[in-house]
Rho termination factor N-terminal domain-containing protein
Amino acid sequence: MKLDEIRAIAQQHGIKTSKTKKAELIRAIQNAEQNDQCFEAGKAGDCGQEACLWRGDCS
């Protein structure tokens, strides 16, 4: 997902997006949605969250 799309989602959650890296924004969104802040935590292969919005970018 492109950074502009991620910023738009973050803004919907009231998250400030200026000077924030992609991974930090995604984890902030995960936190705002009360999900595990697991983006780029090395769990993509065994997290079991196949429908995760961030799955394609996660490692």
The mean pLDDT is 91.
